[in-house]
Specification:
This protein is an all-alpha fold. Helix content is about 75%, strand content about 0%.
Length: about 55
């Protein structure tokens, strides 16, 4: 499930369609992209910790 969410986050961030468009709201339009990248960062860190724990076990 983590990989599905991470893939969706990357696709959303790269897609030309946004929930909050930058052309209309300027810098405020990047808030949804920053949120998606933040979620992606959390997912990557979580998976890295799981991987490290599996190596120790």
């Amino acid at each position: 499930m983590t990989w599905v969410a991470a893939t969706a986050a990357v696709i959303y961030a790269l897609a030309p369609i946004d929930m909050i468009p930058e052309l209309v709201l300027g810098p405020l339009g990047f808030t949804d992209d920053i949120g998606v990248w933040g979620i992606l960062a959390v997912l990557v860190v979580r998976e890295h910790r799981r991987w490290q724990a599996s190596l120790r076990a």
